Amino acid sequence: MNYSTLQISFSSLLPLLKTLPNCSSLKPAIQISVKSASRRIFVMNSSSKLDSRSLSLSTCQVPGLEPEEMDSVVEQMFRRYSSSSGFKRGKGVAIVWFRNDLRVLDNEALYKAWISSEAVLPVYCVDPRLFGSTCYFGFPKTGALRAQFIVECLADLKRNLTKRGLNLLIQHGKPEEILPSLAKALGAHTVYAQMETCSEELYVEKMVSKGLKTVVLSPTSEKSASAKSSAARSPTFQLVWGTTMYHIDDLPFDTNSLPDVYTQFRRSVEAKCEIRDCIRLPALLGPPPSIDDWGSVPSLDKLGLQPPSVVKGMRFIGGESAALSRIYEYFWKKDLLRIYKETRNGMLGPDYSTKFSPWLASGSISPRLIHEEVRRYERKREANQSTYWVLFELIWRDYFRFLSVKYGNSLFHLGGPRKVESKWSQDKNLFESWRDGRTGYPLIDANMKELSTTGFMSNRGRQIVCSFLVRDMGIDWRMGAEWFETCLLDYDPCSNYGNWTYGAGVGNDPREDRYFSIPKQAQTYDPEGEYVAYWLPQLRMLPKDKRHFPGKMLYFEQVVPLKFGDAGRPQSQDFARRKTFGGKQAKDFRR
Ligand SMILES: Cc1cc2nc3c(=O)[nH]c(=O)nc-3n(C[C@H](O)[C@H](O)[C@H](O)COP(=O)(O)OP(=O)(O)OC[C@H]3O[C@@H](n4cnc5c(N)ncnc54)[C@H](O)[C@@H]3O)c2cc1C
To answer: What was the ipTM of the complex prediction?
Structure first.
């Protein structure tokens, strides 16, 4: 029997849908999988037991809500996280430069811009450098899947700002050229933005700040906030902290003395800091200054990328509306928060973990809003280890962000924060077999195929493929980290490079140096081989206990002949490293 997946784009369906009643609020990215033999529409139900015979067909949308349900969730959430009280406002025009904070709710930069002015101009710059190449190995800096996700985030941000009486100006080019010229044209007194911590982003901030200093605002300009002052001045550049759950100013230590052990960090912040409430803005923020051309959300073609299509696995929808809907779906509708701690190490389907990371990385949702929702859930339903554990994981995210402040560029260097000297290979063939999912180890290959097909991989999968690349293959960990940078929807420099340095044993904490044995991981986390059979259909015909060890007959020859000892460790930990060492070392020039 032949199966096929039929992907129907929204634009091709739109003329037809418009003729139907009650379809005015349909959203893009509707994906329908059709089982061609029976014409039965198959939509993967994440909470049902996954049947690997049908799994080759299934694509599921995250969040899995219907458009009407999503609209009503977003409306409710916007009401809950907005303020009804009056605010005293400033004068003139302020600009908000959106970067990795593509949201309206709990956005302090937007709040400060609004409160300090009579008119706010929200701006996003499509910076060509984000679509260049990675630093050492020249992979695409932003792969098509993440680009698509960001484009959807921008479309949603524009919609949500418009609903609040504002709009989003989208311009193509470098922020250091766009923002000063906008500030000059509008006489804006301040440019607000969310603060970043890694050097590529800091470099752009520095250039923006330099550019703004060259702008001279006329003291008599009515648009200027300080019209009363007689001295000519430049627009101010104000950076606002906003990426973490705990605010950097509330930490009980200076970031230079951040504990090097996660547990010490966590215990200390839990005991001594409060998580701030979300910032609440009124429902109406407009009108914005008058702009002739607001620009449009870029197409993937315009970014020089092929539009991707997710034919299997999870298809994440970008934007704040989708993020709020996912919280509702995961916490309230499916009640999965209650069991997160037991399910979080899964690998298959949308519901074993929250899947918040792509929205957190793009800033479509703030961790503080997730925190408030967890507390609300605890009050309304129950507090248990699972509700706590989501916060526990978000503290890991905070920790990697603060570590990037403490350790700076060493996070990207071969020796990592501890400047560990070890020899790595850059064997192209080995690396490509890992990247393309051709190592001959189903658990590795399935995970790598999921990554390139969907832009997502579970935390369990990430730890396993990282360990395999660096410990079994002995490959330069930065090759893996840069490939993740290309592919991940949730790519975040701090979490990505922080986790890779841990995986490679060069992180700040020497005790975080773990080897993941493939047989043991397979037995514990995919005992029936469902996950590998989903991504590698050729394994489906095998009995479940053979799917992880198919031998050469059905599968690629294994590229690294591991000799597993009793504990599932290779007999010599340095086996692969010695065998493959000899590749050219990359020059350590990153960032
Ligand atoms: C090699 C490697 C690379 C990684 N690269 C990234 C990355 O670029 N961006 C990214 O967001 N995460 C990264 N992670 C962390 C983690 O794998 C993902 O955050 C998680 O899988 C996302 O799925 P989720 O949202 O369902 O997580 P959940 O299990 O539901 O956790 C909730 C949230 O906690 C945070 N979190 C959980 N685990 C971690 C962790 N180990 N480090 C930092 N934050 C964590 C995430 O924000 C996540 O959304 C990486 C992990 C490894 C081992």
So the answer is: 1.00
